[in-house]
Amino acid sequence: MDIRRLTPDYAVSPQISPEDLATLRAEGFTTIINNRPDGEIPGDLHDAVMRAKAAELGLDFVTNPVIGGAMTMENVRAQKAAIEAARGPILAYCASGNRSSVVWAHAHAGRMPVDDLIGIPARYGYNLEPFRGQLTTLAQQG
To answer: pLDDT tens for residues 92-124?
Structure first.
């Protein structure tokens, strides 16, 4: 696993496996957000498999599939709701962690400076600069 902590309570990661969930729980994560559609991955990593293992371990599991290049405002609202409902640290995953970073930044527009929403993920190689205009507009809308 390659956990990248954007904040003390929100981390992103490339695809995880059901076996990784016990480690994540031991590391203090309480909520797992799956930002990857099932159509991108083999069956042993599908949402239902991950959800069942997370439930077995007492982890909250949220499904919010973000299609690369086609993130919607519903994705942003769902991520924001999952973040707000979390009872502890969150790990969000997708193919590389990028989509989980992009949807996190959009969910925090207006709550954090746009420069931070772009700069924090950049520390891990995620380029959110192309989203500056969207983030600024969302921040201005409140």
So the answer is: 999 999 999 999 999 999 999 999 999 999 999
Number of domains in the chain: 1
State the Rg of the chain over Cα: 14
| Maximal C-alpha separation, the chain | 42
- Domain membership of residue 136 as a residue range: 4-141
Phi, psi torsion values for 7, nearest 5 degrees: -140, 170
Which residues in 108-125 are b (16+ Cβ under 10 Å) and which e?
bbeeeebeebbebbeebe
HSE-CB for 121 with a 13 A CA cutoff: 26
DSSP string, 82-94: HHHH-SS-EEEE-
pTM: 0.94
Is the dihedral angle over the CA atoms 15, 111, 77, 122 positive or is it negative? negative
CA–CA separation, 93 and 103 (whole Å): 11
CB of 124 closer than 8 Å to CB of 11: no
- CATH number at 77 reads 3.90.190.10
